[in-house]
């Protein structure tokens, strides 16, 4: 009996993947609904290892889903809900067509809600999983909280986004979890450490919402994402509040109540506004012991960890502990022009107190005239009335201090001062081939002085600068190093040979004499160790390595080449940045000099 | 009279208007101090003006078509007028007289009256109905004026100041009426009071065509028939130019409408417009109608002395319904029990349900253990966005800002922004307050969303190794000394390419041959050229015999193989002599048997001892049928394998010097033979063809193995002194090491050269090998072969030695190691020999 012929693509990669069209057919969904369920359930196309086979021999590039994923969707109860919704929408459409507006309104009123709690649980089986995937969620929620009501974005969605993002910020404040902040041209970056997971999110600058053309942005898709993210963030907030012994939904502390006893029209709105101000601490669960400090971390000696790493970890923990109380006991007053929310969030996260003008926003706790204010954050060139008892600093000082994990000296950040560059704390310093701006280097080791900052004697400055420049060049141009070395070495050799030649000339004359001397000197002598020239050694090693490079296996040759090319490109990048910096510094110095000269001349003229 | 008639009524008065106007103006002058009415007065005058201007049109119409036998102009207004006339019929004469008499005096009183009437206007219609006649003249006069006023009032409630004008009108109207009194003959009393107000038959009086589309009359000169059956003529038709001109000239054009029934133009008066406006805003047409009249509760709890209705109240009007009571009781009970909810409660619940409830979703954090692969495919977490760099800062370090050149590049790529270095333009803001919102923020978030659900994902293993880790770990060259490290001697003397070099077995002398048709012998230690032998042809190959105690050099010159004795000047005197002796003694003839095939291609020539050739050092000459390309001595020094270019099956010829005979070992051509080399110990021959190396056993006369080199064109071949390793150089830049013990496949293929490899060579004592070719450098490598069969050979490239200048893209043509020292000799294309030590 002849064995049945196996059908092509019935196993292996051909059976593993499914085109989107096939998936739609299988699920009996419209593309719109399929998109929605994919977003909610977190299903995405997969890149097959062999596209030709995965597409069952069809050409072109198709969107391929894993068959298992689609089968998984098949059992989703939401699927039925979507189908019901479709029917419901038909009802509404019919009512509208029949001009039965009362019915239509009723349908709209009773529009069925979709419950997707179980999807959150399914996608994130543990709380940690949810925290790990919180970046996009937070970024989108923070963005949506700034949205007006749009055609595709219901008002209550953006309101809920606002509520949840404020709640999350409160949780971060109480947990003192913020680690890094950064002001970029796009918005504010924050990084918090919650339950050992780093969560990075981004908050846009003011007026982030701008009308978008239809083919640029589809708010419907974003809204569907937000629909899921809202649910997720709500549960995350609940869990966070629970673990921090806070009441959820947040309430203000019992001590706080409206000052007058008169009945408030909408107490809920009143409280929500004050919570959104983030200036007051939220209520804790009764009976929970407050100020629960983390126990000291014991360090176990393990064999595989080297002691240096342990030491580093210890140091890091110490630093973080310090960071948590960076602004403790300090009072900040925010001027009107300063972005309130990010700064209040920062200050409160690190234990400070903040307030602002009463007319600016609700929830101000103290006035500008309060004598105990230690810092006033201003962002204007000058102020008429200044208090002597406080520092007037620009907002960047707060951000830079947090990143530096200490209170930086304020002299560079005073009101009206030209600010030093604001550096990203997210750049991985441990990686090699990373350009570190001189400002950061100065932060890392206090001995290093960034060029162009000294304002001592000019000549000395120049000399030192040149030295530094030379050093820099030596550092960065590894390529040229070799050539330089060889040249130096050759020069030395040439000198030696020259001296030899000289001696040879002499020898012609006094050959016999020398020979005699040589004969005299004949005998056993203590040997002089042969000293190898360091340059030569280096060159030899380089050459040997170049030869060995040719022995890279054929399998790895392309990889090696590309890696080398990447390293080369990075090196070039760094070189370019260094060069640009150097040119800039030189130019700045030149300008300074000219200015000084001018001042001198002016002074002379005035004295004359 | 219905209010919407008022406007039409007014038109009736039109012919009198000009006169009215003058009086009106006078009156306004008189009453100008009454501020109360100023604004309204203007309004009145407006209306008057419009009437005034309207006139010519009207007259125009009248001239063309005789429509009405009445004196009235307006069809609609006539009836009202008639009514008025009817009502005031009996008193008209006297009243007019009275009015005339105290015309000027009565003005004030009139205005007062009119004011009164204005207040009463709401009810005036009702009131005026019952009392028609039988009143005093004064009274009737007032009534008349009142009535007139009412008409005016209905036009505009506030327009009371225009009363004076109206009185004027009234006087004129009165006079008219008087004159018209004889026309109307019907007594007032007998007429039905509703008849005058009934508007339904008015239309019929005008056009009896009925409810038919008027375009039926399009082709006829008339538009219908009046009551008497006479045709109603069409007014003259105007074309579009006329329309347009009218539009331009006639300020009343906008309020002129066409009566479809008669084709007449009707100018809407201000009151008409007001009326229309009220209708449009769905107000009650009459302005005088009081919507908020005091409510008279006829049916109240107060028991009146006389019942309002004649029948007694029904029982259910004072007894509560039992059924309803039960129903209410049921509802109340349901509400109490919570079975039903009030509408408000339901709305509240709905609102409450809409607020999302959050709870502890993850509970205590226990996760159900998932068995196996799970229901869905292994999730691939979305990659996180790369963290921001310094360049993204609102106040970046100056080096990150784009300079002019980069800016140009940036702008050049505006069509293809994804090729840019950054997705954003690094910008410096002096203060935080100057930072604007990022315009692409929403778009970027949207793209991220798209990425999350639309971008295909796959797990890609990322290599976390350094590039250096891919380079094989080998011992440092320093530990593998000695090897030649630098060029120490250059032997100059050749005038053409040096094709071949060789050391003598002791290493004292060097022999070289080249395109300058000479073979030269040099001293190694000094680099002196000891002897130059002119051989009369380009030398392809020179080889010193490996047998010690002999001084014999085999040189391939064209198609001849010469055996040279470099002579007494070179090396020991006795050795040279002995060699000559050996060669002089010819072998026994019976031994020298060559078959026909060999004889056809090889001829041995003995050189006469006293000849010129002999003096030059040539001892034996073997001529071949074709050019020689390669030579190799057997280790014992008796046999020489010569390779002939394109010899086919006869490519390899083996000569035995002692017996002066030759052999052709192969019957068939194996390919294009490049070189043939003897095994150093065994009776084997390595024959390199273009792609493969074949090993033949000479005793058994069979192919032992075939080594596939993987190269495209083998150039050279070298055998390790032990005989179990083979090195093959190829023109396609490869260097292939074969471990014959291991397999027939290359043990390692080295690509140490950038261009063709022309020569490879092993050192006889040190574990060294060298390769050279058209490359700039000769590469000396360490090739350690271990006794332990389990250990593979160790190959380490050690040193690159700079070769001479290129000539015709050739650099190094031959390489040879010193037999005892780690020295390397290279025959270079720039006609030098270079010794590296």
Task: Give an overview of the whole structure.
- The complex is a heterodimer of chains A (608) and B (837).
- By secondary structure, chain A is an alpha/beta fold.
- Chain A folds into 4 domains: 14-109, no CATH class; 117-208 and 217-255 and 268-277, no CATH class; 324-426, Rossmann fold; 438-494 and 534-608, no CATH class.
- In chain A, 53% of the residues lie in helices and 7% in strands.
- A 4-stranded parallel sheet of chain A has the order 7-6-8-9. Chain A has a 3-stranded antiparallel sheet with strand order 3-4-5.
- In chain A, a hairpin with a 3-residue loop joins strand 3 and strand 4.
- Chain A is extended, with a radius of gyration of 35 Å.
- Chain A starts with 12 loop residues before the first helix and ends with a helix.
- In chain B, 28% of the residues lie in helices and 22% in strands.
- In chain B, strands 10-11-12-14-13 form a 5-stranded antiparallel sheet.
- Mean pLDDT of chain B is 78; it is low at 1-138, 148-159, 183-193 and 197-205.
- Chain B starts with 5 loop residues before the first helix and ends with a strand.
- Chain B contains 19 helices and 33 strands.
- The longest helix of chain B is centred in the first third of the chain and has 27 residues, at 38-64.
- Among the domains of chain B are: 3-258, no CATH class; 484-667, 7 Propeller (Methylamine Dehydrogenase, Chain H).
- In chain B, helix 1 crosses helix 4 (75-87), helix 2 (17-31) packs antiparallel against helix 3 and helix 7 crosses helix 8 (163-180).
- The interface between A and B is large, with 110 and 85 residues.
């Amino acid at each position: 009996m002849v064995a049945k012929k196996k059908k092509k693509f019935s196993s292996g990669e051909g059976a593993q993947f499914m085109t989107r069209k096939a998936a739609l057919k299988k699920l009996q969904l419209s593309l719109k609904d399929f998109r929605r369920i994919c977003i909610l359930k977190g299903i995405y196309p997969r890149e097959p290892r062999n596209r030709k086979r995965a597409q069952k021999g069809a050409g072109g590039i198709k969107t391929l889903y894993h068959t298992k994923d689609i089968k998984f969707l098949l059992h989703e109860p939401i699927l039925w809900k979507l189908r019901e919704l479709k029917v419901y929408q038909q009802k509404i459409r019919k009512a509208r067509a029949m001009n039965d507006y009362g019915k239509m309104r009723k349908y709209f009123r009773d529009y069925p809600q979709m419950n997707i709690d179980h999807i959150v649980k399914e996608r994130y089986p543990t709380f940690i999983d949810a925290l790990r995937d919180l970046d996009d969620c937070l970024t989108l929620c923070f963005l949506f909280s700034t949205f007006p009501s749009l055609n595709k974005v219901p008002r209550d969605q953006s309101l809920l986004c606002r509520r949840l993002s404020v709640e999350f910020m409160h949780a971060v404040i109480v947990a003192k979890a913020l680690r890094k902040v950064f002001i970029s041209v796009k918005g504010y970056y924050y990084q918090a450490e919650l339950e050992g997971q780093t969560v990075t999110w981004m908050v846009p600058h003011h007026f982030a919402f701008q009308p978008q053309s239809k083919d640029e942005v589809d708010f419907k898709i974003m809204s569907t994402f937000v629909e899921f993210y809202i649910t997720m963030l709500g549960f995350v907030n609940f869990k966070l509040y629970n673990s921090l012994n806070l009441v959820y939904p947040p309430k203000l502390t019992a001590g706080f109540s409206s000052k007058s006893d008169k009945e408030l029209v909408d107490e809920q709105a009143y409280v929500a506004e004050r919570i959104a101000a983030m200036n007051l601490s939220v209520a804790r669960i009764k009976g929970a012991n407050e100020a629960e400090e983390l126990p000291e971390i014991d360090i176990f000696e393990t064999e595989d960890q080297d002691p240096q790493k342990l030491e580093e970890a210890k140091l890091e923990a110490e630093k973080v502990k310090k960071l948590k109380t960076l602004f403790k006991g300090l009072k900040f007053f925010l001027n009107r022009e300063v972005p309130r929310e990010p700064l209040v969030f920062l200050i409160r996260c690190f234990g400070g107190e903040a307030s602002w003008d009463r007319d600016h926003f609700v929830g101000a706790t103290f006035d500008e005239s309060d004598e105990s204010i230690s810092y006033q954050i201003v962002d204007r060139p000058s102020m008429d009335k200044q208090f002597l008892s406080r520092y007037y600093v620009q907002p960047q000082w707060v951000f830079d201090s947090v990143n530096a994990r200490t209170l930086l000296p304020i002299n560079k950040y005073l009101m009206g001062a030209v600010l030093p560059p604001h550096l990203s704390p997210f750049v991985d310093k441990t990686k090699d081939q990373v350009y570190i701006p001189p400002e950061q280097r100065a932060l890392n080791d206090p001995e290093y002085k960034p060029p162009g900052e000294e304002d001592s004697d000019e000549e000395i400055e120049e000399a030192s600068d040149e030295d530094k420049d030379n050093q820099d060049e030596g550092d960065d141009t590894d390529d040229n190093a070799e050539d330089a070395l060889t040249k130096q070495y050759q020069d030395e050799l040439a000198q030696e040979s020259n001296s030899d030649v000289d001696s040879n000339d002499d020898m012609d004359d006094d050959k016999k004499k020398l020979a005699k001397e040589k004969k005299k000197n004949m005998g056993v002598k203590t040997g002089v160790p042969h000293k190898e020239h360091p340059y030569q050694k280096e060159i030899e090693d380089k050459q040997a390595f170049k030869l060995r490079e040719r022995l890279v296996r054929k399998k790895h040759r392309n990889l090696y080449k590309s890696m080398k090319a990447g390293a080369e490109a990075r090196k070039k990048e760094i070189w370019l940045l260094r060069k640009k910096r150097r040119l800039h510094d030189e130019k700045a110095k030149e300008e300074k000099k000219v200015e000084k000269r001018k001042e001198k001349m002016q002074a002379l003229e005035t004295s004359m | 009279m219905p209010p919407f008639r008022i406007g039409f009524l007014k038109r009736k008065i039109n012919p009198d208007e000009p006169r009215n106007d003058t009086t009106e103006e006078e009156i306004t002058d008189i009453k100008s101090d009454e501020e109360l009415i100023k604004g309204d007065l203007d309004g009145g005058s407006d209306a008057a003006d419009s009437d005034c201007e309207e006139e010519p049109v009207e007259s125009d119409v009248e001239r063309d078509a005789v429509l009405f036998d009445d004196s009235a102009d307006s069809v609609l207004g006539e009836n009202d007028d008639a009514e008025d006339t009817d009502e005031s019929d009996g008193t008209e004469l006297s009243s007019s007289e009275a009015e005339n008499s105290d015309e000027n005096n009565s003005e004030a009183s009139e205005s007062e009256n009119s004011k009164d009437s204005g207040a009463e206007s709401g009810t005036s219609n009702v009131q005026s109905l019952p009392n028609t006649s039988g009143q005093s003249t004064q009274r009737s006069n007032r009534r008349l004026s009142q009535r007139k006023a009412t008409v005016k009032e209905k036009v505009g409630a506030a327009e009371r100041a225009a009363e004076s004008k109206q009185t004027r009108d009234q006087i004129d109207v009165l006079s008219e009426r008087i004159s018209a009194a004889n026309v109307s003959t019907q007594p007032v009393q007998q007429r039905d009071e509703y008849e005058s107000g009934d508007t339904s038959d008015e239309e019929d009086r005008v056009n009896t065509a009925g409810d038919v589309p008027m375009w039926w009359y399009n082709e006829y000169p008339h538009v219908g028939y009046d009551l008497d059956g006479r045709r109603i003529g069409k007014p003259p038709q105007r074309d579009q130019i006329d329309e347009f001109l009218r539009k331009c000239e006639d300020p009343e054009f906008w309020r002129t409408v066409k009566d479809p029934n008669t084709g007449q133009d009707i100018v809407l008066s201000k009151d008409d417009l007001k009326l229309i406006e009220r209708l449009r805003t769905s107000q009650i047409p009459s302005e005088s109608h009081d919507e908020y009249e005091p409510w008279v509760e006829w049916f109240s709890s107060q028991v009146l002395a006389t019942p309002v209705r004649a029948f007694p109240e029904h029982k259910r009007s004072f007894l509560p319904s039992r059924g309803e009571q039960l129903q209410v009781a049921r509802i109340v009970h349901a509400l109490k029990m919570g079975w039903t909810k009030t509408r408000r409660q339901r709305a509240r619940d709905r609102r409450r349900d809409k607020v999302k409830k959050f709870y502890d979703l993850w509970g205590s954090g226990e996760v159900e253990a998932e068995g196996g692969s799970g229901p869905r495919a292994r999730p691939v977490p979305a990659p996180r966005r790369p963290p921001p760099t310094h360049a993204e800062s609102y106040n970046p370090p100056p080096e990150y800002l784009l300079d002019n050149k980069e800016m140009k590049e940036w702008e050049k790529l505006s069509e293809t922004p994804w090729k840019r270095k950054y997705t954003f333009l690094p910008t410096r803001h002096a203060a935080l307050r100057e930072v604007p919102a990022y315009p692409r923020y929403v778009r970027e978030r949207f793209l991220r969303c798209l990425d999350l659900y639309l971008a295909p994902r796959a797990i890609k293993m990322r290599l976390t190794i350094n590039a250096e880790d891919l380079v094989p770990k080998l011992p440092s060259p320093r530990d593998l000394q000695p090897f030649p490290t630098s060029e120490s001697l250059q032997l100059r003397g050749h005038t053409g390419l040096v094709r071949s070099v060789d050391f003598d077995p002791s290493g004292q002398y060097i022999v070289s041959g080249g395109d300058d048709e000479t073979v030269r012998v040099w001293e190694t230690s000094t680099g002196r050229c000891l002897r130059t032998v002119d051989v009369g042809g380009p030398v392809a190959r020179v080889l010193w015999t490996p047998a010690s105690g002999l001084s014999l050099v085999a040189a391939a010159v064209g198609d001849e193989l010469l055996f040279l004795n470099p002579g007494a000047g070179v090396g020991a005197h006795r050795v040279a002599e002995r060699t000559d002796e050996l060669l002089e003694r010819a072998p026994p003839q019976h031994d020298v048997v060559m078959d026909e095939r060999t004889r056809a291609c090889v001829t041995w020539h003995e050189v006469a001892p006293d000849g010129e050739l002999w003096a030059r050092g040539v001892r034996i000459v073997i001529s071949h049928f074709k050019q020689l390309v390669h030579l190799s001595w057997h280790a014992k020094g008796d046999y020489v394998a010569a390779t002939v270019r394109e010899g086919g099956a006869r490519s390899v010829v083996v000569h035995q010097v002692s017996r002066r005979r030759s052999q052709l070992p192969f019957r068939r051509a194996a390919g294009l033979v490049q070189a043939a080399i003897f095994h150093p110990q065994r009776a084997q021959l390595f024959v390199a063809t273009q792609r493969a190396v074949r090993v033949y056993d000479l005793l058994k006369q069979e192919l032992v193995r075939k080594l596939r080199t993987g190269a495209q064109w083998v150039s050279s071949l070298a055998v390790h002194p032990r005989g179990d390793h083979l090195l093959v150089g190829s023109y396609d830049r490869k260097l292939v090491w074969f471990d014959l013990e291991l397999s027939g496949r290359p043990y390692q293929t080295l690509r140490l050269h950038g261009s063709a490899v022309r020569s490879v060579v092993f050192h006889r004592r040190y574990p060294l090998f060298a390769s050279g070719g058209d490359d700039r450098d000769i590469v000396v490598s360490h090739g350690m072969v271990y006794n332990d069969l389990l250990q593979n050979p160790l190959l380490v490239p050690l040193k690159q030695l700079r070769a001479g200048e290129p000539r015709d893209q050739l650099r190094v043509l031959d390489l040879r190691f010193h037999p005892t020292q780690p020295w390397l000799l290279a025959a270079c294309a720039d006609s030098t020999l270079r010794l590296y030590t």
